[in-house]
């Protein structure tokens, strides 16, 4: 019997890389059109995944990838929140 669990993989919308879900951060658009960063990955709504990488967030902002994927305008505060989350995780992992 194989007891190893299958690791859920998701695709980063900025880089196109397939990565384990835990290595990505989810951004959600709710039914009301509100955009939120979802570190738990469990909120309901249309989701998009980004690598926990400053370059990926910068690329998504520069090319407006997140806005086109979620069909809504993305406020700069969302990108700032993503960058803060990445910095916080880097500090904790050291």
UniProtKB/TrEMBL annotation:
InterPro entries noted in UniProt: YlxR (IPR037465), YlxR-like_sf (IPR035931), YlxR_dom (IPR007393)
YlxR domain segment(s): 10-82
Pfam families listed in its UniProt record: YlxR
PANTHER family listed in its UniProt record: BLL0784 PROTEIN, YLXR DOMAIN-CONTAINING PROTEIN
Protein name stated in the entry: YlxR family protein
Organism: Cytobacillus depressus
The organism's taxonomic lineage, starting at the top: Bacteria, Bacillati, Bacillota, Bacilli, Bacillales
